[in-house]
Structures are given as structure tokens and as C-alpha cells.
Amino acid sequence: MGRAVTVDWGGWALFGLLATTVLTCVMIAAQLAGLSRLDLPLLLGTIVTPDPDRAHLAGFFIHLAMGQIFALAYAGVFALLGLATWWLGALLGLLHATVALTILVPLLAGVHPRMASYRAGPSSNAVLEPPGLFGLNYGPQTPVAAVAAHLVYGIALGVLLTPQ
Questions:
Q1: Scanning 19, 35, 36, 47, which has its CA 20 to 30 A from the CA of 129?
Q2: Could you read off the pLDDT of 60-119 as tens digits, one per residue?
Q3: Is 115 in contact with 140 (CB distance < 8 Å)?
Q4: Are 14 and 122 in contact, with CB atoms under 8 Å apart?
Q5: CB of 79 within 8 A of CB of 8?
Q6: CA-CA distance, 81 to 57, in Å (whole number)?
């Protein structure tokens, strides 16, 4: 019979928040360094409020919640494999970045109430530009910054989580 698979629930709860905070900080640092115009807290927060100041706060917490969901997936993979290492975390981070940049971020234009769609004409009153594939509409270095941030996220979880 196979071994029982148990998720590191305590590690997931704590380290998921930590890794998401670090990922967000890397993305903000890339924005402040002029490498990307992608402002995740603003982008996510303007889904729920038009006020940019409130959007930053709301978006940070939305991103933390999303990070916890992804951290649960990482913890589940580590538990299933019985292995959590920096390199496995990095591989999952690369997969995570690929899914985010090719599926999740481009889909925002279709559901975000304050983002122009790809078909919006000059009459659109949207305040946000759609990110485009790989987030390239927010700068040519945006994919590099996003991949780096997700690698840091995955490596942090691979190092800090313990498969049970």
C-alpha cells in the first residue's frame, strides 16, 4: 500500500504569505527600477474599487489570497512527491510564471471592469491598458521581472515547506 500524503498546513499558512509578499516586493522593485510598468496591487485592486489609493491596499490583499491558493498547490505537489527542494520549487515557479503570463494576465482584459479590452475603440473610458501576452504591454522587461519573481516564490516555498 502507498504512503499517506499529508500537506504541511502550518508551513503553507505561514510561508505562502511570506513567499507571496516577497514575490510582490520583487515586482514592485522591478516597477520602481523602471523595468516594468506592471503594478499588481493596482491592477488587482481596481477590480473592486476605482480609487487608486484604496486599490493598492485591496490589490495587495487580493494578491496575498491568490498567492495562498497557489502556495497550496505547491504544498500539494511537494506532499505528493514527498520532496520539497529549491530546484523543484524553481521548476514549479517557472510553470506558475508561464501560466500567469500566458493565461491569467491576458484574460484580465476580458473581465476587469476598468481595463480596456483588446477590441475597445477610442470611445473606451477604461483607465488601465490591457497587459497583453506575457505582460509585454507593460514593458519589454515585464516577463523577465515576472519570471524572476515567480522563481523566488517557488524557491522560497521549496526551501521552507516540508513534505509530510
A1: 19
A2: 999 999 999 999 999 999 999 999 999 999 999 999 999 999 998 888 888 888 888 766
A3: no
A4: no
A5: yes
A6: 36
Determine the residue type at 163.
Answer: P
In this structure, are residues 23 and 79 in contact, taking their beta carbons and an 8 Å threshold? no
Contact 91, 154 (CB under 8 A): yes
97 close to 146: Cβ distance less than 8 angstroms? yes
Which three cell numbers mark 146? 515576472
Instruction: Say if CB 151 and CB 93 are below 8 A apart.
Output: yes
Those residues whose C-beta lies under 8 Å from the C-beta of residue 9, and which sit 6 or more positions away, are 75
Rg (CA), the chain: 17
This prediction has a pTM of 0.89
The identity of residue 141, as a single letter, is Q
Partners of 146 in the β-ladder: none
